[in-house]
Every structure is written in structure tokens, then in C-alpha cells.
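As noted in the main text, all predictions were made from sequence alone. Below is one such record, for Glycosyltransferase.
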Amino acid sequence: MKSLLYVYQNYRKSYSSASLSILRALHSLKGFKIEDFEVKPISYSNFINRILNKVSFIRTRHFKVQNELLMTKVGNGCYDYMFVMKGTDIKSDTLLTIKKNNPSIKLICFNPDDPFNRASSNEEIIKSIAVYDYYCIWTRHLDLKLKAAGANHIKYLPFGVDETIIYPLDAEYKYEISFVGNGDDERHQLIRGLALEFERRNLMIRIHIFGSNWPDLGSNVIVDGQKNAEDLLKTIAASKINLNLLRKQNKNSINMRTFEIPAARGFMLHERSDEAQSFFTSNTEVVYFDDVVDLANKCEYYLKNEEERKGCVTNCNKKLKSIDYSYQKIIDNVFNQL
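Prediction:
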């Protein structure tokens, strides 16, 4: 039996975090003994953590200790693999020391973000790319950049579904259109543009937003707070239309909602993406939009055509069942290729 150490962070102590979804999937691997190491934050209070992270000597001292604890945990020759989830606070020197002390260990990283996007990355993440034996990424569009950064072997690990937390719920419709996610300038502009387009057409359609960093976008845009996993499922089930808006780093690619909304049997209007269309067929499984006018047209059409929405949901559900998009299956495929 092979041994694997999973290194992750879960700063919000959330059962529904992607890091724990991967951990649950790893435990399903046959022929592996799985242990885990959590890189702990300075504090599990988001407010306190944000403040203390800005104090350089506190942050440096804390994560120096965390890296030392990791090296002690690995020891000498204890593990065949070390699987790192993103590695935000893991130093490249720590990885090099682990490899030096354990020449046969294979280091694997899965980064659920763009390592070259400074908003979700740092210098150590980029420096570490060349240290890992295998670098797993959710899109094929970053392969050239990863190779230029020294990646040894790149593995495609798309987002999937954690079926322990994402599943269909029965609910009566409560929202015409909903979007679950945090705001940024581009998303603000698109939602505001959609709201204005509805007003221009004299359509009394409300858009419900669930997330943080959203300003007042008009009387027909209702902004609520963030959703946990259970509330997310209720929102998807209670929405006639679920929007999926891609961040800049996910353009022409996929995100977690690409699979979570269909797995929860929600009807999805997805920002057009070649990679998403390689998974779900346009108009028969998922409906894609190109710009704000196209989005408004399709919202207006599909709100009036419930049977077509239900047809897409049924077809999409069949696709999910015929081709396993669970994290368990994805992790199995990755390790079968190593």
C-alpha cells in the first residue's frame, strides 16, 4: 500500500471548501493510506486573521513554524506522495528540503486558481511550480505558462462535484434569476447592464445576488449575503435561472459552478466558454450567453418557457450520470496516470 500526505488549508473551517472535497476524494483512492496536514491560519476568525496577516513579523514567524511542522511531519522516507492543495503558504525551500531528505517522494500540487494571477497567488506559489513533480490545473489554457515556469509534468484536473455536499433538493420557485458569487468590477457591470436592459424593456424581473462585495445596482437587483453549501443547494433549486459568470482567470474555461449547478439539477445560463461546451452541449444541456443583450434575451425567453428549461436540466442530469464528474473519479484518473 502506498502512502500519501495531503497538505491543505481551510481557513474558514468550512465543510464545503474545495480543499475538504479533495480530501474526501483522496480517501476513496484504493491502495493508498492517506494522512493529512492542515497549514493553520494565524486565527480562524476572518476579522482577526486579516488584521494579523498585515503585521509582517507575525505572519513571517507563524508560517515559518507551519513550514517547520510540515517538514517534521514528512520526516525521512515516510510517504510516497505529498499532495499539496495550492500551497499558498508553503515555501519553495520547504519543498526542496523535503525532496532532499526524501529523494523518492513525488510532490504533487493542485492549484484551483491561476498561479499567475497576483490577486490569487504569490511569489512562492510561482517559484514552487518547478519543484513539484506533477502540477495539476483545472484548465488547459495555462499549459504554456506553466511550462515556461518550469513545470515538470502538467496534469489536467478539472473541477468536479463533491456528491456529499452537492445534490438535488426539492423546492418551489422563489427567484426568477439568481447568481451566487462574490462581486468584482466586471460582474458589477454585467449585472447592472442586465438590470438596465430589463428596465428598458419594461420587464419586472428581479435579479437576486448572493455574495459579498456587491454595491447597490438598482431596485430590481436584490443583494443578500454569502451562502453556505446547504443554502447554495436551496438557492439553485428555488431559481428558475441560475447564472454562471466567469472571473477573468476563468475566461473561456470553467469554474466550480459549471458542475455544481447541473449536479443540483438547476437550469444554468453560463457565460460562453469553449471548455465548458466541451462538457455540456449548448442549448440542449446548458444555455450559453455572449454579452449582456444576449443574456437579457435568453433570460426573457427561458423565463417564459419552463418546459425547455426542464428539458435542459433532464439532459444535463443524464450527462452527469453517464460520465462521472465526481472528484472521486477525477482523482482516480489523475493517479492512474502518474
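The longest strand covers residues 2-8. Residues 208 and 222 are 5 Å apart (CA to CA). These features were considered when defining construct boundaries for the mutagenesis experiments described in Section 2.9.
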